[in-house]
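2 proteins. here.
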Amino acid sequence: MTDDRAGLPDHRVRHLLPGQEHALATAMAFVRQTLDDWYPAGRDRPETTRVREDAFLVADELVANACAHSSGPTRLDLDRVGRRLSISVTDGGSAPPVLRRPRRPDTPTGHGLQIVDRVALRWGHRPVGGGKTVWAEVLPPLAPVNGVPVDRDRLG
């Protein structure tokens, strides 16, 4: 497998304006472009499909939560650190995110952090200035073994 990291920065940031009308669309276009650059899709690279889907879903939920529970996201960071992809969303809200348990499937909202909790390896938050950053990590694809993609779900 070739090194997709060659020549590409391991950190990308997108600054957003709180209350921006199209913050979610702007943020997700940034995520999609970054994932396209870092993990090219294609039939010859099926191992990239899962990381792209997981990262896009997690980023979408974190940005949507910032839009719903604060004045909107102010910053979106994507980082490749070792084997992990980290997604961080900063907003001006000081209230920490709340993982609702038990999940109520009959409600139209409140499922975002459940999804993040299920898909991400780990997630959390930290105070930043007068607001907070909510972050999550997903595992990039494992390198194929003898040309065969490795299924993470079947590992130990």
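next one coming up
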Amino acid sequence: MATQAHHSTSRRDFIFVATGAVAAVGAAATAWPLINQMNPDASTLALASIEFDLGAIEEGQSVTILWRGLPVFVRHRTQAEIDEAKAVPLADLKDPATDESRTKEGHEQWLIMIANCTHLGCIPVGESGEFDGWACPCHGSQFDTAGRIRKGPAPTNLVVPPYEFISDTLVQIG
């Protein structure tokens, strides 16, 4: 009789474990659609990164493109603008950043940054202001030829989005 009691206890334990396992799988199968519906829509994921051909932008010219619903400045800087940006002492900057940290090595002529003033989100006007960079017409923030804040209420430089060069004239933002 002792062996029979041990045998039924073992069977009962198996039934409890099997029932628990089936319940866990059922709970996961029920929860999966609820969790999966929180993922971004396919149209949103498509906007996560864009490719842009820089070949049509002439030296000294800027264009504004859209990325994730944000305007992005793409500027083909002249050598004079690059030299001017590199000559600025970091001590003169409100938010110190070198020109090299705001561009990609080998592509210093291309400046890519989100076109929203870091003060209140206005869109600065290009090739204007005291520093021949960008000036925010709303509150007077002025940025230099590297998009660094030089004067006004903006607390930080214009934001450089994540980007990489796929070729000499093709850039992927995002």
